[in-house]
Design brief:
Blueprint lengths: L1 E3 L13 H8 L3 H14 L5 E3 L8 H10 L3 H20 L1
Helix pairs in contact: 3-4
């Protein structure tokens, strides 16, 4: 199982509204990530944390969308999984 690392979620530069900033700072990013990892390990999956940076705005993204017929989000998830598999192959 490959999980995205959401390092950009708790930054306040995306909005200027007070309520939006409050919602961003109160988002339980770390607890959500820990819960996902623990649940995956209980179900017997190997967990790899992958940085999704550069998966959406790349030539590979457009190529995968055209060749496989994926939408934007599915193509990004596919590229993240390929990144994770590449990391696993480098370790072994």
């Amino acid at each position: 199982m490959f999980l995205r690392i959401y390092s950009y979620v708790k930054r306040r530069k995306f909005t200027t509204s007070k309520s939006g900033n409050r919602k961003i700072t109160r988002f339980a990013k770390k607890q959500l990530l820990i819960h996902g990892v623990i649940k995956s390990l209980r179900l017997g999956f190997n967990v790899v944390l992958v940085n999704p940076k550069g998966t959406t705005n790349s030539e590979e993204h457009e190529k995968v969308m055209r060749e496989k017929g994926f939408d934007r989000h599915t193509a990004s998830a596919y590229l993240i999984a390929l990144k994770g598999l590449g990391m696993l192959n480098n370790i072994k």
